[in-house]
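#struct-pred

JT: dropping the chains for the assembly here, can someone run the whole complex?
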Amino acid sequence: MVDTSIIGRETQPRTIAVEQGQVQFFAKATGSKDRIHWDLEAAKAAGHPAIPAPPTFLFCLENLAPAKEASVLATLGVDIGKVLHGEQRFTYGAQIYTGDEITLTTKVVDAYDKKGGALQFVVSETSAVNQNGESVGSMTNSLVIRP
Amino acid sequence: MTELKYDSVAVGDSLPTHTCGPISRTNLAMFAGASGDHNPIHIDLDFAKKSGMPDVFAHGMLSMAYLAQLLTNWVPQKQLREYGVRFTSITPIHATVTCNGKVVEKFEVDGEKRVKVEIIAEVGEGVKTLLGDAVIALD
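RK: done, full complex below.
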């Protein structure tokens, strides 16, 4: 059974710089055909002040932002080999650009079992603001822990 | 990109199909580095087998990035309001991912005209790997 005492647990805010090389690497790794995600001149020609991060890049920033405390999965003592991604949802605010400093806060909003405890679900919400205090959106992540 | 208008979009319209892959082991190694998702189940065959899987398999978020390309091939990214998926099957190594979408709803929120599109990623003979939706603002 999943330890429901983790519900409500919130991380300390974590700040990470959006590095141009990382966004370009992501564009390459995902086979992006859209030059604005790796070519600064193309991005500027399209009216952007810098290279815009693609729509799912907030997930990468959360992975890359240095943790200040043990992760929820570590707290639960979960074997990473048993974790599957169940759902992921983004809502969008201001565009994230290279050169931004994004501050992330993640909160566990739900934890429950299915199939008599055989499958455990942990749902987290992450909110993100840029260096100007503007919301750049949020995301909800649902992880499934299989037996 | 020719700008798409709210009035020229109808419920039932399809987005142009976007096909990605086949996904190689190199693609997964690169995506692990680029996304910061270092879960060895996607890049280390020994670990995958030890975890009871026959082989490594693709990150769900790689396919979610492909589905995002389906959307941003259709409209500029700044028009995206929401985007979500459920991961319904594992994406095997070497899979080709076919991304499709269709408009299911037109509505207005706070004076902004929006459409909802249902999106789907499939591999092989119609195995659904991601099912989701996106909300997009249109002038």
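JT: nice. The interface with chain A takes residues 20, 27, 30-31, 33-41, 47-48, 50-52, 59-62, 64-66, 68-69, 71-73, 77-78, 80-87, 90 of chain B (CB under 8 Å). The domain at 6-24+59-137 of chain B is CATH 3.10.129.10 (Thiol Ester Dehydrase; Chain A).
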